[in-house]
Amino acid sequence: MKKVLITGGNGGIAQAIKELLESKDYDVFAPSRSELDVTDWNSIDNAIKNYVPDILINNAGYVVPCSIKEANLENAKKHIDINLSGTFYCAQIGLKYNPNLEIINIASAAAVEVHATWSEYCATKAAVVMATKCWAEDGIFTVSISPGRTRTKMRKSLYPDEDQSTLLEPNDFAKVVYKAILHDYPSGSNIIVRKQNVMELLSN
């Protein structure tokens, strides 16, 4: 039974992945932030050394849209600390305890899109995609999966009046993540998943 650690475990995407993987007989640990803070080295070390996953899913994320002109330094720092630094910290500490660790990075379609007030989010997710490519060249099996607009609590808080029927379902996204775990995609790939293409991805 392979062990999977999913950061940002309370989120809708994390819970969908956890439910699917458990139905496939994986041992899944999806800690909340109080159990694993991706910005805190000691918190990560304690969580990983006590579990030692075979597969790490870097899912913890942060987005609060803000114009760069507002000079909101704390907001910028949180994007970088959680989305980018946290991904590196978890990967490096995970590899320390398991040199054969496989890594799935949850990036975002925003990594390849332009959004005026999302610059920190877009930039950090683009960096995660590039890190994935570099780690693959470094001999690690790693894939980034980039969801488009997805029906989550975080999305609902940002866009409360959005038509929910136009959004990607977390359960469908989780199935693409499962395909990545099965090595259906080459190491270093970035798979962009949207409501419009998810069925095609799942049929391949």
CATH superfamily: NAD(P)-binding Rossmann-like Domain
- What is the level 1 CATH name? Alpha Beta
In round numbers, the mean pLDDT is 94
Which architecture would the CATH scheme give at its second level?
Answer: 3-Layer(aba) Sandwich
Output the helix-strand order: EHEHEHEHEHHEH
- Give the overall form: globular
Q: Kindly state the number of beta strands.
A: 6
**Count of individual helical segments:** 7
Q: What do we call the CATH topology?
A: Rossmann fold
Share in β-strands: 5-15%
The percent of residues in helical segments reads 40-55%
- Structural domain tally: 1
Question: Which runs of at least 5 residues are low in confidence (pLDDT < 50)?
Answer: none
Rg over CA atoms: 16 Å
Q: Span between N and C termini?
A: 26 Å
Strand order of the largest sheet: 2-1-3-4-5-6
> What class do helices, strands and sheet pairing give?
alpha/beta
Q: Biggest sheet, in brief?
A: 6 strands, parallel
